[in-house]
Amino acid sequence: MKIEQPYLTLVATNKCNYRCFYCSPDGHGGMGEGFGVKNDEPELEDLVLKSRLAESMGTKKIRVTGGEPTLIPWLPELLQELGKGSSELSVATNGFLQKRDFGRAKVRISLDTIIPEDYRSTCGAGDLARVLESVFELRDMGVLDRIACVVTNRNYPNVSGYLRWAIDNDLSVKFFDLYATVLTKDQWVSEYADIGSFDSLLQLIGGVPRQIGYTKSFGIPAKHYDLPNGTYVRVKDSMEGTRYGSICGGCDSYPCQEGLYTVAYADKKLLPCRQGPQYEAGSVEDFVNNLGFLQKVFQRSYFSRAFWRDK
Ligand code: SF4
Fold first, then answer.
1. Atom of ligand 1 nearest to the CA of 274
2. How far is the CA of 42 from the centre of ligand 1 (A)?
3. How far apart are the C-alpha atoms of 53 and 246, rounded to whole Å?
4. Which stretches within the chain are classed as H helix?
5. Closest by alpha carbon to 264, among 281, 289, 243?
């Protein structure tokens, strides 16, 4: 199988207005995908320059994330500039600030529960009604790509109701299981829910899926389903394994659960994963050299279930 270039994740800021228990268990929160890198003073020109360079090196997808990217006042300008490039664009948000100006980017909204009394205990902040307004408005504008749900022991009992609600409201969904990034091992064990039974759940709720397949990408393979009513569902289950590369041999976190899943740019560094090494990328020369190196690492990466074998 021909392996594509890894996509570029721009960690536009580590600041976040939410305190989700799996991202900010200490309540201080706001690291997100730039885990381990402080990034609270991003520069628009720098993000645009690095995105252009990545595109010139073959990157075809750019994802803007955080922290919470809608906290950046100049996010619309950033997206307008990125939109002049050739890449597929997306933005990940919690939807609370109800922004509408995403240019040509598609929006992914995190939504772990639709039960009002569970929402704040999961997110540590926010307002479910406001977020649902964002979901429906962006859906109606044709801007919403999908909602994303991290499945844990807390929301697992209600996941079939959630899925039925998403299908009824014509919302595509991505389900993830819980990753052991910032949680201690004990916290992770007590919060983890196995989503391996989702095949049968989808058949029960959505009827027989038209198509089941694995998306071609890095990290944990995502199984995708087209349900007969047109709803698109992805299930990213770390039990399936993940991808590691030449840089993993010397990594203290090997075998990590998430593996090499994207190249992230945060605070002028390139991060091939959440807990591994970081590469200088402030200057054009460092960015080009280190992105080139990481693209090769990803393309030569190998699939393994090492994390689960060690459990
Ligand atoms: S944290 Fe990164 S470098 Fe370390 S094992 Fe995982 S993918 Fe490899």
1. 1
2. 25
3. 24
4. 44-56, 75-83, 116-123, 128-141, 159-168, 185-191, 198-206, 284-299, 306-309
5. 281
Q: Which pLDDT tens digit goes with each residue over 136-179?
A: 999 999 999 999 999 999 999 999 999 999 999 999 999 999 98
C-alpha 86 to ligand 1 mean position (Å): 29
Cβ proximity of 274 and 296 under 8 Å: no
Query: Is the CB of residue 275 below 6 angstroms from any atom belonging to ligand 1?
Result: yes
- Domain spans of the chain? 8-310
CATH number for the domain whose boundaries are 8-310: 3.20.20.70
Q: Is the CB of 298 under 6 A from ligand 1?
A: no
CB 261, CB 248: distance < 8 Å = no
User: In the block, which residue shows the tokens 């993830």?
Assistant: 176
pLDDT tens per residue across span 170-222: 999 999 999 877 788 899 999 999 998 888 888 888 778 877 778 767 889 88
Does the pTM of the predicted model rise above 0.85? Answer: yes
Nearest CA to ligand 1 atom 8: 248
